[in-house]
Write a structure and sequence with these properties.
alpha/beta, five-stranded mixed beta sheet, 12 helices, 9 strands, 53% helix, elongated
């Protein structure tokens, strides 16, 4: 029973998480609609050669960024640890670290005044104050990232701005596998006001959104670096969003149906198990009622069985959630609460029916 309950609650938690993620994606339509004339680009070499290779990809991306940052309004704002594999920086901390250039930071609604930020600087927006931030595990990751961004020059000023009130923002990573991941609460944001990107970080240009002056602008750049025969394309940002929105609507529908089917199958199975248990203990419970035992004592063995099953199930779920990290603990506990509540209601109804109808039948020799 515990194994079945674990599978049911895990499946329900996964369905609920998928539905919630789909809802967040569907709800971003207004955001992406305002970038209907922006593009998202990709360009990289098909295979390693002297004319096109990974090293040149990064160099050309860095050149493209520096040359057209202002002209094409190139805006970056993405999760360092989860941006479609573009970033080569790995983080071990639990805090979300966001990288944004100044243009991207202006678009994601941070609760700070960006107008006074100096050029060629790094700013860290954090829910922690400066001293506390430097004592946390995330500080070493921040130093590593800024070192990658600035080269070996760590003498540049890093200015920390603490935001005391909770805040949330929606990032600009249209290429994210799951657009709901763009909705983040209290992230640590690195704002880069430089007009250049180091080669080691330049691949993230393909995470940016940009507004071309002419539909041929990107083709002209590709031709200028002789990459016509390599992989390159530009997609309209809103069109990309619509594709992901349609997929999310389909995913939400599938998960709703799946959740209903799983629930029906589980509760039918649970009803059958409960009925078998009561049938097995019918005479015992009836005799206890005749002897005048109170309600709790009559059903003590059934209560113990259910309690043990629920305790084992809860322990297994918490262990699996922490070890596997597939489903957010919030959804596991929500699914757990709803499942236990429905089991309690079913159990209560079953006992009421049993007390009023089945015990008299048992005393007469039937069930």
């Amino acid at each position: 029973m515990s194994a079945a309950l674990v599978l049911f609650i895990s499946a329900m938690a996964l369905c609920m998480q998928n539905i919630a993620d789909a809802y967040k994606t569907i709800n971003q339509r207004t955001l992406w609609n305002q970038y209907g004339d922006y593009e998202s680009v990709v360009f990289f070499s098909r295979e390693e050669s002297t004319m096109a290779n990974h090293e040149l990809d990064n160099q050309y991306a860095a050149d493209f960024y520096q040359r057209y940052l202002d002209e094409y309004d190139i805006s970056l704002a993405f999760n360092i640890a989860d941006n479609g594999g573009m970033s080569e920086i790995l983080t071990d901390c639990s805090d979300i670290i966001v990288y944004a250039n100044l243009k991207g930071a202006e678009k994601i609604g941070l609760p700070v005044d960006l107008s006074h930020m100096s050029k060629d600087s790094f700013y860290i927006i954090s829910p922690y104050d400066g001293e506390k931030l430097k004592t946390k595990e995330v500080w070493s990751d921040l130093q590593q990232i800024i070192k990658t961004l600035s080269g070996d020059d760590m003498g540049q000023k890093i200015r920390i701005t603490s935001v005391k009130k909770p805040y949330k923002t929606t990032l600009l990573d249209i290429k994210a596998d799951n657009l709901s991941d763009n909705c983040v609460r209290n992230p640590i944001v690195i704002i880069d006001t430089h007009n250049t990107l180091k080669k080691e970080f330049a691949a993230n240009v393909c995470t940016a959104i940009m507004k071309f002056k002419d539909e041929n602008n990107f083709r002209e750049f590709i031709e200028s670096i002789n990459y016509e025969n390599q992989v390159w394309y530009a997609d309209n940002v809103y069109d990309l969003y619509e594709q992901k929105r349609n997929s999310s609507m389909m995913e939400a529908s599938v998960n709703i149906v799946l959740a209903l089917v799983i629930s029906i199958l589980f509760y039918i199975s649970f009803y059958a198990a409960l009925k078998a248990e009561f049938k097995f203990r019918a005479q015992e419970i009836s005799v206890r009622k005749i002897l005048g035992e109170h309600f709790a004592k009559r059903y003590s063995l059934v209560f113990k069985m259910i309690s043990i099953v629920l305790i084992i199930t809860t322990g297994m779920l918490v262990f699996l959630s922490i070890m596997c990290n597939m489903v957010n603990l919030l959804w596991v506990f929500l699914s757990l609460t709803l499942s236990y509540l429905s089991i309690f209601i079913m159990f209560t109804v079953f006992i009421t029916i049993y007390e009023n109808h089945n015990i008299p039948k048992t005393l007469k020799g039937g069930y």
